[in-house]
Amino acid sequence: MNRLKLFLITPIFCIQFSNAQRIDKEIISFQLLKEPVFATELASRNYKITVQSPYNITKDDVLRQSKEDYQRQVDNYQTNVESAKLEHTERLKDYDAEVKKLQEKYKLESAEYSKLSAVEKIAATNGAPVLRIPSRPVLNIPPVPVYRQPDLKDALIVDNKILASQMDILGFSKGGNYLDVTIEMERTNFQDNQGKTFANQPTRIIGKQNGTIKLDKTYFSDFAEVASVPTNEINLNAQEKRFLQRTMDRTRNILNDNFGYQTINSTVTLASVKNKGEYDDLEKAYIYVTTNLKKLQAKSDYAPNKVAMENMQKGIDIWKNSLTKVNYQDKKAVYNQKIGEYLYFNLIRLQVALGNYQEAEKYLNELQEHLVDIKLSYDANLELKRLEEKIYNN
């Protein structure tokens, strides 16, 4: 691994707000080798990946299904026409009855109105009765089915070998089976909830090192929002294709978190709060994190990296503990909503920069629960959206 020779720390701006709090921001560039949960000796870093999924679909399958759907429409066409005629007949009956009812009502109201004196007619709120006849129902004959070639761009033309080829484990070579990974993937499940579309795709990941199971866990069972409209208003094929890719990307990241050796070249913007005395702990946390970020080097089994990460965690723990002091309802509190915003953004930014996306997502979810009380600026909202994209696309 190449050793990091330069770290750049650049002050970019500061923000002042109520209660004499001042927040400064700095950009820190760093490089590190992210060690996996399960280490593998260098000589044994080879792997094979097997994917088991319902997605063994070819171009011929898509075309055949399209023709079958068209033939089904042709077979059902005459029945649909007869159904449309019957429905029209029923609507005409209802229409005639409604017209008759309206005419009788008009006749009665006109008779009553004619009995009024001229003065009473002028004083009448609604004026003279008016007969309003609704439009006559129109017979809507369904169009004759026309065959159209399916849009192969949205079709799920994949198979298990293609899905497996999208997986790689950093620091390992393909071939061999010292690390043997099996991915058991279900088909995407869609559901409607409060007018929106949600989806999940339970995926079991089994990782064996030299025949010993190190990882056996099912992920992605929770439903996530994929569209702000219900399923009948979206292209389900296109959505499933995108969601499948998202699942593959997240699976790859889980494999690398657990087994891969990832060199991370990253830049992170971290904030520090200035107010002598009241925020000494937060300043101490900032120093712990930034000074130890600078000590990291992209080396495997490098002892100083372990010490630096342990010391950095001291700063992270101070930030986490400080969140319990935040009073989101009192703007004049020392630890007010602005301090809460500052702490959450630092924790999310740092974990994203370190490649710890699951940890970053945890803080993101906590922040989102407090957004009723935290009024983010336009720039903060934009940054939050960018952080969300990084988290959810990994």
Features of the shown structure:
394 residues, 3-stranded antiparallel sheet, single chain, alpha+beta, 5-stranded mixed sheet
Physical arrangement of strands within the biggest beta sheet: 4-3-5-8-9
Characterize the largest beta sheet: strand count, sense, and whether it forms a barrel.
5 strands, mixed
Give the uncertain stretches in residue-range form. Answer: 1-20
The whole-angstrom Rg is 32 Å
**Average pLDDT over all residues:** 88
Question: If helices are DSSP runs of H or I spanning 4 or more residues, what is the number of helices?
Answer: 9
Protein name: Tetratricopeptide repeat protein
Keywords: Coiled coil
Describe what you observe in this structure.
By secondary structure, the chain is α+β, with helices and mostly antiparallel strands. It has three domains: 23-35 and 262-381 and 388-393, no CATH class; 46-57 and 156-257; 61-151. The chain contains nine helices and eleven strands. The strands form three sheets. It has a five-stranded mixed sheet with strand order 4-3-5-8-9. Strands 1-2-11 form a three-stranded antiparallel sheet. Helix 5 (280-293) runs antiparallel to helix 6 (303-323). Residues 67-112, 350-377 form a coiled coil. This is Tetratricopeptide repeat protein. Keywords: Coiled coil. It comes from Chryseobacterium lactis.
